[in-house]
Design a protein that fits this description.
Layout (H helix, E strand, L loop, with lengths): L3 E5 L7 H9 L2 H6 L1 E6 L13 E4 L13 H19 L5 E3 L5 H7 L6 H9 L5 E7 L6 E6 L9 H4 L2 H19 L5 E5 L14 H16 L4 E6 L6 H8 L10 E4 L2 H12 L4 E5 L4 E5 L16 H19 L1
Parallel strand pairs: 1-2, 1-4, 2-3, 4-11, 6-9, 7-8, 7-9
Antiparallel strand pairs: 5-6, 5-10, 10-11
Length: 327
Amino acid sequence: MKPHLALTIGDPAGIGPEVVLKALQDPTITESCHLTVFGSADLLPCPLPAGVDFYDIPCDGKITPGKGDGVSGRISFLYLQAALEKTLKGEFAGIVTGPIAKSCWQLAGYNYPGQTEVLARAAGVEKYGMMFVARSPHTGWILRTLLATTHIPLSRVPTALNPELMSLKLELLLQCLRDNFQIANPTIVIAGLNPHSGEEGQLGVEEQEWLLPWLEGAKKQYRDVRLIGLVPPDTMWVKPGMAWFGSGDTENAAHAYLALYHDQGLIPVKLMAFDQAINTTIGLPFIRTSPDHGTAFDIASKGIARADSMKAAIELGAELARNKKLN
């Protein structure tokens, strides 16, 4: 089965067009799926490979490579909007999104935290999650990290977290592992919120007051799942790090990790897998993947951007789309 995916180039002032074109030069990428690229023809430095379709959205302003602004923000939003509309009509099994700059969206008048929220709102989905997936080039082990909270200030994390949110994220994670990765009885590690997971209430009370009781309830609810926690955030990443770099047995690592806030999950993910990690939105009625890097305006148009993460995003999007169709 060769799924049909939409691929947006992201902010054209960034490295999105470059990494898309570089990724499509690899024949294994174009063989894994049928792709339609959403972008502006006059902003691509070279033609697309044979067999890749193109949906042209003309840019009505000047784009300066390396200098994102309201113009680049507006056209990057239009790429996403067009791909999303056609995906919701059933023309595509999923979307691979190129990197955008949230600040440029704001300059263009689009007040969204990011692409994830646009996709969820358009799909009418309230229950969704941001998960990061990467395959180790050293061992082949797959790192999967779900964030309980995403793009909110650190000061709001303790109040945003609650038993209902944790149950929602865990349910989404279990469904994703089952439906998209064919893992029926996973091992999942769940982080504590405070240093040393609160140190029995000495370094924070959230663990004692509600996180541990919530976890005990989840263990009773999901008896066929191994839930480990609450693991202190500073030690939770030791085993996955060893599994990633090959200094430990991959059998000792979990199938997935549930981090409670953005940096708690993404600092280790980007440390281990900056060029391999993929952002995938779970809970949507279609597949969505994206490279786990930004627009990198500082190196745009210099020809030095690496396309590893974009390649991985396309490959994972194709794999998840095939698995979804099988299920």
